[in-house]
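Forum > Structural Biology > Help requests

Title: Can anyone predict the 3D structure of 4-oxalocrotonate tautomerase domain-containing protein?

Hi all, first post here. I have the sequence for 4-oxalocrotonate tautomerase domain-containing protein but no way to get a structure on my laptop. I'd be grateful if someone could post the structure tokens.
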Amino acid sequence: MPILHVRALPTHDPTDVRSVVEGLCEDVAAATGIALAEISVTWTWLAAGHYATGGTAGAAQAEDEHPILVDVLVADRHPQERIERLLLAVADGLGRRTEVTRENVVVTAVPVRSGHVLGRGRIERW
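Reply #1:
Sure, ran it for you. Structure tokens for 4-oxalocrotonate tautomerase domain-containing protein below:
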């Protein structure tokens, strides 16, 4: 853990999702010191018209509207300063690797308590 779930509208230009998700893993590891092997990223495309902001549904990912949405499941053991570095690394990484700016990314940390995750066939504790 952390586990990042990225959601975005279709892009105007093709996005190499594989490169983006792999790069985000590396960005988070570099910014936080969390082992690369512990970081996971998923990417989900939202169908055109299935995401509204301010009452308007978007058809495609724009540079300055309908922000890319990222939920980050993260162990609640990390200090606030590390969480902030993680959030910034995700926004910066998406800004470098996609057609949107860092300012059009919303990243939400979702703290997860010890004993509230089953992974590798066992309850994870920290």
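The chain has one domain: 3-123. The chain has a mean pLDDT of 96.
Shout if anything looks off.
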